[in-house]
Amino acid sequence: MAKRKSKQKRRSRERAARARAQRRKNSPALWLGLATVVAIVFVIVAIRYGRASQGTYLPPTDVAGHSETVPPSRILTQPMPISMFKHMLEHADGRGLPGVIISYNCEDFECEPDLIPRLEAIVQDYPDIAYLAPFPGMTAKLVVTRRGAQIVLDEFDEERIRDFIERGG
Questions:
Q1: Is residue 90 in some structural domain?
Q2: CB 140 within 8 Å of CB 105
Q3: Tens digits of per-residue pLDDT, 13-34?
Q4: pLDDT score recorded for residue 45
Q5: Rounded Cα gap, residues 95 and 6, in angstroms
Q6: pLDDT tens digit sequence for 79-90
Q7: Within a domain: residue 118?
Q8: What is the torsional sign of CA 147, 155, 120, 127?
Q9: Cβ(123)–Cβ(132) under 8 Å?
Q10: Are 86 and 162 found together in one domain?
Q11: Entry pTM
């Protein structure tokens, strides 16, 4: 008889535990916690990929997540993949000096007809470190980027671009 009561008590405890687990599973607090975690992850991802609260989207200045790939030329007519972009900031030729990348966005901004040829001429004057590539979607017309720094330009400014390439300023 003692065994029967022991079994009944155990079954009763198991049923109670299942009922508590079911209540926790359907708990509003659980769903609120889950929604909070999802919201935090969303914010972190949005900030990490450049779409900050100000609504700006610019090329990266860090090398985290770069790939060991090199573009086919210094002057590109297609966007450079972000992982490659970051590698060029680290090593302009894939091995040596840090690079500088001039990015332009003529899809969202009005560009003068001679803008790209003028930018190409600058890049050709710095064959060891400079690249030119479109960066569609960025919230600027021109951005010159080096590792850890960049300048944003509304208009072509050859002196500022060359100064940034040569001295980082």
A1: yes
A2: yes
A3: 888 777 776 666 666 666 676 6
A4: 60
A5: 74
A6: 999 999 999 998
A7: yes
A8: negative
A9: yes
A10: yes
A11: 0.67
